[in-house]
Write a structure and sequence with these properties.
Layout: H1 19-23, H2 28-39, E1 46-50, H3 54-65, E2 70-74, H4 78-88, E3 91-93, H5 100-107, E4 113-118, H6 128-136, H7 144-152, E5 153-161, H8 174-180, E6 183-186, H9 191-203, E7 215-218, H10 222-230, E8 239-242
Parallel strand pairs: 1-2, 1-4, 2-3, 4-5, 5-6, 7-8
Helix pairs in contact: 2-3, 2-9, 5-7
C-alpha cells in the first residue's frame, strides 16, 4: 500500500486505546473540534449546535471541554437527540416541534447563543416549498441551517460552519451578518493541527468518543449500513464496519 505524505500524517496510536476509541480521531472528532476551536471560547458561553449526527455529537463534546456553560443540540430526529442527551448531557430542541430561533432566545434570556455551529450542511430536512425554491434558483440543497444560525446567534457572536456546502446560493443573508456583527468561520477541518492534542485527550480519558456508536457490523453488510443511516432506520447514529 502506498501512503502519500507518510512522514507527516500517520500517527502511532497508544497501546491502551482500542480501535473504536482511536477511529474517530481520523475525521469526525477533529471536525467537531474545529467548529468549537474556531469560535475561541473563553469560558461560560452558550453553544447551539445544529445537527446531532456524528460530527454534531463530537462538536458537543468539544464545546464542554472548551468551557461552554450550556450546550444545545438541534435535530429533527428524536433518536439522535436522545443519543446526544445520553452521551453528552446537552439540552435538546426538535425543530419540527418548536421554533428553533425563539426556543434558543428563550433559553438565553432573549440574547441568543454565543456560538452557533452548522454541522448539517446543504442537505437538511426541508419542506416541498424549499425544494421547489432551490430548483427554480438552480441551487443544490439549501442554506436553511446557515439562516437559522444567523438568526439564533447573539449580536457579535460566532457562527462556525463545518457542514458541507459546494455551490453558490441566491439570497445569502449578508444583511443579517452585517447588522449583527457576526464572525463566520468555516471550512474543512485542519486535522493535522489538532490530532496530537486530541490523541492525548482520549489517552488521558478526558473525552469518550466510542459512545456514539450505534451499530457494529461486518464489512459485508456495508450496503445495509449505508441504507439504515441514510434512511434513518433502526436508530442508526454511527456505524463501524469490521473486515
Amino acid at each position: 500500500m502506498r501512503v502519500p505524505y507518510a512522514d507527516i500524517s500517520p500517527r502511532k496510536i497508544p497501546d491502551n486505546l482500542t480501535d473504536e476509541q482511536a477511529l474517530f480521531l481520523t475525521d469526525i472528532f477533529p471536525t467537531g473540534w474545529s467548529a468549537i476551536d474556531w469560535a475561541q471560547l473563553k469560558g461560560g458561553e452558550v453553544v447551539a449546535i445544529f445537527g446531532s449526527g456524528p460530527v454534531g455529537l463530537m462538536a458537543q463534546k468539544a464545546a464542554w471541554i472548551n468551557g461552554a456553560s450550556r450546550v444545545i443540540a438541534i435535530d429533527p430526529v428524536n433518536y439522535r437527540l436522545e443519543r446526544a442527551k445520553a452521551v453528552n448531557k446537552v439540552d435538546t430542541i426538535n425543530p419540527n416541534k418548536v421554533d428553533v430561533v425563539e426556543a434558543i432566545r428563550e433559553m438565553t434570556g432573549g440574547r441568543g447563543a454565543d456560538v452557533c455551529v452548522d454541522a448539517v450542511g446543504f442537505e437538511p430536512e426541508r419542506s416541498v416549498l424549499d425544494k421547489v425554491k432551490s430548483t427554480i434558483n438552480f441551487q443544490k440543497g439549501s442554506m436553511k441551517v446557515i439562516e437559522q444560525c444567523f438568526k439564533a446567534v447573539r449580536r457579535g457572536g460566532t457562527v462556525s460552519i463545518v457542514g458541507v456546502y459546494g455551490s453558490p446560493y441566491d439570497g445569502f443573508p449578508v444583511h443579517r451578518m452585517f447588522d449583527k456583527g457576526i464572525t463566520i468561520k468555516q471550512g474543512q477541518a485542519p486535522v493535522l493541527n489538532y490530532i496530537d492534542h486530541l490523541i492525548e485527550l482520549v489517552k488521558e480519558e478526558k473525552v469518550v468518543l466510542d459512545d456514539i456508536i450505534s451499530h457494529n457490523l461486518p464489512l459485508s453488510d456495508v450496503a445495509h449500513a449505508y441504507k439504515i443511516f441514510d434512511e434513518k432506520e433502526d436508530d442508526c447514529v454511527k456505524v463501524i464496519l469490521k473486515p
